[in-house]
Amino acid sequence: MPNHHPRVLPGAPYPLGATWDGRGVNFALYSAHAEKVELCLFERVDRPESARVVLAENTGHVWHGYLPDARPGTLYGYRVYGPYDPARGHRFNHHKLLFDPYARLLRGRLRWSDAHFAYRVGSARADLSFDRRDNARVTPKCQVVDPAFGWGVHRSPAHPWDATVIYEAHLRGYTMRHPALPNGLRGTAVGFASAPVIDYLKSLGITAVELLPVQAHIDDRHLTDRGLTNYWGYNTIGFFAPEPAYLSTGQLYEFKMMVAKLHDAGIEVILDVVYNHTGEGNQMGPTLCFRGIDNASYYRLQEDPRYYCDDTGTGNSLNLAHPRVLQMVMDSLRYWAGEMQVDGFRFDLATTLARGVNGFDPHCSFLDALAQDPMLARVKLIAEPWDVGPGGYQLGRFGAAWSEWNDRYRDSARRFWRGDAGALPELATRITGSADLFDHDGRSPRASVNFITAHDGFTLQDLVSYEHKHNEANQEDNRDGRDDALSANYGAEGETRDPGILELRRRQRRNLLATLLLSQGTPMLLAGDEFGRTQHGNNNAYAQDNETSWVDWEAIDEAADDDIRFVRRLIRLRRNHPALRWPRFMHGWAQCEKSIKDITWLASEGGEMNTGHWSDPERRSVGLLLNGRADIRVGTLPLDEILLLLLNGHPEDIGFRLPSLPFGSGWAELLAADRRPQSTLHEFDSVFRLAGRSVVLFHLAVEV
Length: 704
What we know:
Radius of gyration: 27 Å
Distance between the termini: 80 Å
Mean pLDDT: 96
Largest sheet: 8 strands, parallel, barrel
Low-confidence stretches: none
Strand order of the largest sheet: 12-13-16-17-20-21-22-23
């Protein structure tokens, strides 16, 4: 390409972004308030631009041009001219090189400098001042890509929701300490797609990995100044580009290869996506992309447009009420679902995406657009149904196509197994699918994504090892993170060699895992919880790109390996017994032959739970009879699909009278959280000794 005067043709306003057509590249950028747009071309990431091309064509506020001599690999960015008038919501500054919002690939790392700010840092006029320094040398560059990839005979596993078991993992942290991987592949998509990792995931029996944000993000300046990073990645700056640090060669095909290999293993890929805000922060943040392209369009502004609406706690909120911003988000989702072949999305702070002028609106333009989109109709949609704005908690209010993170499940399970008084009734509601929240508008138990732990909070090991958070490494004086995590240490804070405490912690981990995987709804397991991964009491490790957060594979000893086998058994039981993943809510209304209800709650003394039992705050044990034959819609299942689940949150053993049925020959153990299942057949109406703090699952034994 000539260095100074590239050939430029009018091009087309669609598609947005940089599009290689086999002959040249079309560039298109939306800005409703810009006065001029320059396309800047670069020979190398760390050099000044080799050419500036004015995109003279403007069609419907899309600035566009076609470069017949451009090719995949071309590095570029934009300079956008217009008024710098924060009081009117405009923050144009052509001295700042800007990312293309539709860039498919970024090259180089952001090097922090005062030059990234459109105002003069330190000025008495703050963001009303104007900065004329050029930031191009310290800004990553966009790269034109050739999207071609040989998918071959490729099919998504497309697991039905009732068969889905989600495994939340960090793409980088999961492999950074994996002993079977060379250093160059650790922390990358290629490493995640390696045989040792995929074989392990497949052996667990999980059906989907939910990856923390993989879209390109930036590390906040206040973190890098303290030697930290935005490890979790909830600071997106490029909604189409994978995070460059996750690509070992910097090539786009690596991510596609990872998806293809996971699909070959029968594992779906769900992305945690952050469309509620960007990494540009509030009015004092940097100008890297959206702010400098068209601040008044991309962001929700307050009545005084100098300031941003902030329902996310990050300084800004994207303006999905604007049709072009909505288009960008929808185009991004279609890109990842189509071009990258991912299977679903978990939407961070999803309430923000559904906010209208009067707050949360279940029929807002974004939710309606998703509902009618033919490509996105096939993918899994998961909402984090809250944000920090007014009326932000909206659990249960997303539509029939959605599943939702259920924090009330998390908290009720934690309270029950910690031994809190009065925790049993809520737990009963949660482990049967949370009908009080989701049984409306045609929804089913799969709407509830059940979890005990997630990236945000204690790991499972730490949940039973620490009563208090220990976030000092975040350098925020331990003020960050949840204060009341509903945790317990069982006699010692953190690490201990006391065998009694260690055994009790292990039992509690197994009780919580068994509760999770034997509940109705969609279970989500945090990576490493199956073998006791610890963050040493840090319950907000968002800035810890180090051994605090990385999975320690070499810590898996004989006991941890046994815990892994326990989780494999739980997932196998869930897969093999349809009664554990019922397609509808159970209310005790449906019955099978002999009038056995679909669900029956049992007291340890014998008989059904009554009002007195449920209102007793000290009752910490219950039995749950699940009748898999009570619904003709799931087919005629064998008699042994009648299951009995016993939970005992008491520290002491109790006697539990096993129910009698008009058929079958007794109760056979399928699983015991505290030991190996017994082969003994337990007779009807016998008193079973249920160990303190334990879970036992039986099936109806049938005479042959």
